[in-house]
Q: What sequence folds into this?
């Protein structure tokens, strides 16, 4: 009796999807079909990295070679496995993937390779030997930032640690490196440690909890996988003077870099806690460029060039000595070494400022911001 | 149901009326498969079918497990965590020899079943609510998993990979297919045993089942053990499928198992459905990925499309002569006819006024009973949370050298951090009091926060009109949920889950992937400034708490909420606007989520995608820890506030330490479990 109804419901669903289908007919016969499988579109980093990939695909050097399609698997590894299978089935020549898990995708990737598809992973790692990997050395990141903090504190002091997403390899590599560095100095005491989920919002919640039991004056320094901007803003709101704010070792958010500039630097659009404060800091970054680099590698491999299986990018650390304002973020400026952007053009302080890679002149600031290539 | 199985000759092989959910999902699945074949550039080959069967197998197995629990009227939140645990155990156990490989599979299944037995014990023999027990188990298991395997790694022998994901009959049957057919056979055999009959009977009507001599306790216990066994098989399968282990691999599968089970035609609340439908439901979800990809639908629309398909699937399989939608239509027609003859207006009035004498009668009775006896139930269910809260504060004092107990700053931080949960508790709490559940909280917060920040752009004058507009937006979201539940008769979990997906897509579209804009100075001052020694929002939350108590305790709406939760049927017959109340609680919940979205934006200064993701499970946890019955009808807002204080104080205590994160999850789970044990019905 309900068969008609079922059919009716299904017809509605079909009509819905068919409408979308009509709008997207592929024109690319001679272009290489390359898929991007992202994880969350949840945070700034992912969105910027995806913008970079899209910008590179749209640049004059690539737009006739690449037909890029973007899919999102969310945080679900099972979904990403199925997505990779479906991409192979849909005729992908190459797959650029932000791997949710370094291990879960192995069999799917192996099957894709067996069908002649080039698989390149960015930021995260895929263990399967046939895959290409491009990422920042996360162990090095942890070591570099922790060592900087220890040196700044003179080997002695109470440190608050905000980590990333527990159970991921990036998080444990960074934590392991930091723990090794801190362990060498008996004067360094980690007094509190919370999961920050690589989010400025979570960092604030967790720090608020920590401050309830460890007031600012009992803390000497912070080591944060993300959220230095927030930590510095919270101290400023709590009435701590600019020159008394604790040193913070962290990621590459633009807000953090602005706060590192000496007090009095002229910055367009600075306000509230998003302004130069001269806070002693190191800002090392996971970079938003590996995704675009992965696309370049995929195209190179398809064109028959010889490419190394693993490419490690430097965290390109910025300290108070090397932080430098950009005016407009043009390619030439970035090349000359500027690494922070005025709040007037980047209103979001959590935005990642590490957008430059010398190997990729096609993409820069505008690519990360709005997905527009340099040429 | 039991009647049908007791007289097998009369039961036709396919029963259109009873199996229509199953038939629907098989038809949908077949159509989608054909559709994928049509739109794909190359026709589907054996390779494609194999990869589909293999990659969907884990979800299918997990959904079979979830089906057992749902059939008894329960709900298993620990499914994803158990899959991760088993995957971690399987990946870290040595397995070089064939005996070792057999052992590791047995171990995986055993661990799953053991966790199932743990759940089953508390649900069946301690008579705790499944949702609470499994929530606590989820935290416990998550902690243990991180302890065993802190990051992805481990190794599963290649022999197992070949065994589970290889080929069983070359060119005909992948090994994963054998596993799935095996799971379906286990279900079909079990279904026709006494245990199977009992499973349906307990889910349909536990009391009647008990009355006719079915051992309801062992049936429930068995359902959880079987569920655990299937999660174990899913975790083991993932180990074989991926050749390694990942401590987070199962967590995102939790909501998918519900979707698969519901798509498969199993009734939430129990009593109808089956595991075969769930298997097809799981594979339908997997096919959706292929369809979105083949159509090259923008990533932003993916969750919207999934949400709409979920609603359509459930809606179409629920349509029938007695469906709620048609009933609502008939009622509307009757109402119109009555209205034109001037009848129903009077009925509506009696509906309200009939509550008045009831209240008066209650009032005269209570004057004789002393206060503490009159409120005995209230006290019994709300005090445990407050007592535990005091204990946690005392513990905090002992852990830290500073003077915490007398520090105003400490309590100020607690209240500020607790603000979000205190507000969400009213919304989620009211929904739970009517026997529902609102899963759309995360992206209602996210969407409203992003919407508000995007329009406010740091301007105080814009704040004046944007905040009310955002709250109206919340009301509209709530109306959508409420109408879905009350008028269309969709299960609350389905409609709110779908809304969550749709809002996620809407947030992405609105923000273009990167939320712009930020909170205005006033909003930031509200959350981070200072007024007479306290953060301004603390005053707001005190007023909010007072209004919430008045709303639930002293208004007609509040009474209706409790009445509907106790018995929608009895309420309806007593002239209570059941549908109005249902819509009202979802509107209230979405309103609260929208408010929290605005406040979080003020707190962090900006809005971010996924900003609400950490609030769904805590919003349920505080409501339950505060003494609310998950099936509705019992609970008090003050108790929920106790729950908020307890959880916030506990998290504050744990965050300030350097305990391993695994240990914190375990402690958190233990506290939730302990507090519901204290709330147990005697």
A:
């Amino acid at each position: 009796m309900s068969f008609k109804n079922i059919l009716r419901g299904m017809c509605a669903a079909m009509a819905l999807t068919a409408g979308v289908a009509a709008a997207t007919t592929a024109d690319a016969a001679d272009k290489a079909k390359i898929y991007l499988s992202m994880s969350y579109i949840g945070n700034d980093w992912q969105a910027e990295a995806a913008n970079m990939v899209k910008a590179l695909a749209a640049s004059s050097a690539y737009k006739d070679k690449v037909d890029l399609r973007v899919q999102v698997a969310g945080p679900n590894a099972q979904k990403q496995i199925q997505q990779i299978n479906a991409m192979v089935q849909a005729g992908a020549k190459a797959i650029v993937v932000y791997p949710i898990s370094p291990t879960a995708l192995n069999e799917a990737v192996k099957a894709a390779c067996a069908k002649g598809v080039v698989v390149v992973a960015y930021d995260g790692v895929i263990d399967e030997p046939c895959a290409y990997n491009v990422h920042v050395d996360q162990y090095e990141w942890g070591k570099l930032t922790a060592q900087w903090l220890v040196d700044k504190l003179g080997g002695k002091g109470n440190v608050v640690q905000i980590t990333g997403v527990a159970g991921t390899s990036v998080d444990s590599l960074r934590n392991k490196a930091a723990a090794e560095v801190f362990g060498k100095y008996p004067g360094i005491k980690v007094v509190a440690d919370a999961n920050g989920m690589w989010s400025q919002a979570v960092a604030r919640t967790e720090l608020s909890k920590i401050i309830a039991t460890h007031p600012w004056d009992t803390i000497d320094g912070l080591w944060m996988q993300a959220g230095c901007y927030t930590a510095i803003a919270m101290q400023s709101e709590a009435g701590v003077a600019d020159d008394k704010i604790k040193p913070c070792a962290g990621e590459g958010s633009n807000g953090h870099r602005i706060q590192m500039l000496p007090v009095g630097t002229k910055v367009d659009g600075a306000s509230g806690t998003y302004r130069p404060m001269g806070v002693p800091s190191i800002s090392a970054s996971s970079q938003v460029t590996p995704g675009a680099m992965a696309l370049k590698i995929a195209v190179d491999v398809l064109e028959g060039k010889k490419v190394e299986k693993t490419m490690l990018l430097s965290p390109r650390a910025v300290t108070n000595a090397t932080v430098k304002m950009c005016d407009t973020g043009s390619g030439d400026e970035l090349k000359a070494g500027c690494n922070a952007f005025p709040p007037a053009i980047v209103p979001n302080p959590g935005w990642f400022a590490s957008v430059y890679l010398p190997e990729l002149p096609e993409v820069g600031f505008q690519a990360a911001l709005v997905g527009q290539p340099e040429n | 149901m039991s009647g049908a199985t007791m007289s097998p000759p009369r039961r036709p092989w396919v029963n259109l009326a009873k199996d229509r959910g199953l038939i629907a999902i098989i038809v949908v699945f077949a159509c989608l498969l054909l559709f994928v074949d049509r739109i794909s550039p190359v026709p589907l080959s054996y390779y494609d079918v194999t990869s589909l069967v293999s990659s969907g197998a884990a979800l299918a197995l997990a959904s079979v497990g979830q089906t057992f629990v749902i059939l008894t009227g329960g709900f298993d939140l620990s499914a994803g965590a158990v899959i991760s645990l088993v995957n971690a155990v399987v990946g870290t156990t040595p397995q070089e020899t064939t005996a070792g490989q057999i052992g590791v599979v047995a171990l995986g299944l055993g661990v799953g079943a053991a966790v199932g037995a743990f759940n089953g014990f508390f649900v069946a023999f301690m008579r705790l609510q499944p949702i609470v027990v499994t929530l606590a188990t989820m935290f416990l298991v998550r902690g243990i998993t991180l302890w065993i395997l802190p990051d992805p790694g481990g190794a599963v022998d290649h022999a197992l990979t070949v065994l589970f994901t290889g080929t069983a009959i070359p060119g005909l049957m992948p090994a994963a297919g054998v596993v799935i057919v095996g799971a379906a056979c286990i279900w079909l055999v079990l279904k026709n045993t006494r245990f199977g009959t009992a499973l349906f009977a307990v889910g349909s009507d536990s009391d009647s089942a008990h009355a006719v001599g079915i051992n309801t306790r062992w049936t429930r216990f068995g359902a959880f053990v079987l569920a655990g066994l299937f999660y174990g098989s899913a975790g083991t399968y993932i180990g074989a499928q991926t050749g390694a282990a990942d401590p987070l691999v199962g967590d995102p599968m939790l909501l998918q198992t519900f979707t698969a089970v519901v798509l498969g035609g199993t009734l939430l609340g129990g009593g109808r459905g089956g595991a075969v439908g769930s298997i097809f439901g799981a594979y339908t979800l997997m096919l959706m990925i292929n369809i979105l990809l083949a159509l090259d639908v923008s990533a932003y629309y993916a969750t919207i499309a999934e949400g709409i398909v979920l609603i359509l699937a459930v809606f179409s399989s629920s349509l029938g002569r007695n469906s709620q939608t048609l009933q609502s239509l008939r009622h509307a027609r009757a109402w119109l006819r009555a209205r034109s003859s001037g009848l129903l207006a009077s009925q509506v009035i009696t509906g309200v006024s009939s509550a008045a004498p009831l209240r008066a009668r209650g009032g005269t009775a209570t004057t004789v009973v002393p206060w503490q006896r009159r409120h005995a139930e209230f006290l019994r269910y709300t005090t445990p949370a407050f007592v535990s809260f005091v204990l946690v504060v005392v513990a905090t004092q002992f852990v830290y050298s500073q003077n915490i107990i007398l520090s105003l700053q400490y309590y100020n931080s607690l209240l500020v951090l607790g603000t979000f949960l205190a507000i969400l508790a009213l919304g989620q709490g009211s929904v739970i009091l009517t026997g529902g559940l609102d899963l759309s909280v995360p992206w209602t917060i996210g969407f409203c926060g992003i919407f508000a920040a995007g329009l406010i752009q740091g301007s105080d004058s814009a704040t004046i009109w944007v905040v009310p507009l955002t709250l109206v937006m919340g009301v509209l979201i709530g109306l959508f949920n409420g109408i879905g539940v009350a008028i269309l008769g969709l299960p609350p979990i389905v409609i709110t889950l779908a809304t969550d997906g749709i809002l996620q897509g809407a947030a992405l579209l609105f923000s273009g992937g990167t939320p712009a804009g930020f909170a205005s100075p006033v909003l930031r001052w509200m959350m981070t400034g200072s007024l007479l020694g306290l953060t301004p929002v603390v005053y707001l939350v005190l007023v909010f708490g007072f209004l919430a108590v008045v709303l639930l305790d002293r208004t007609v709406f509040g009474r209706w909420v409790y009445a509907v939760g106790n018995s929608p049927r009895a309420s309806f017959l007593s002239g209570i606007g059941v549908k109005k109340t249902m819509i009202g609680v979802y509107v209230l919940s979405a309103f609260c989520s929208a408010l929290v979205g605005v406040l979080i934006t003020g707190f962090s200064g900006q809005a971010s995608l996924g900003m609400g993701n950490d609030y769904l499970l805590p919003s349920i946890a505080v409501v339950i820890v505060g003494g609310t019955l998950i099936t509705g009808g019992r609970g008090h807002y003050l108790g929920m506030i106790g729950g908020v204080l307890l959880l916030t104080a506990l998290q504050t205590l744990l965050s300030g330490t350097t305990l391993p994160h695994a240990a914190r999850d375990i402690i958190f789970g233990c506290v939730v479990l302990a507090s519901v044990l204290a709330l147990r019905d005697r």
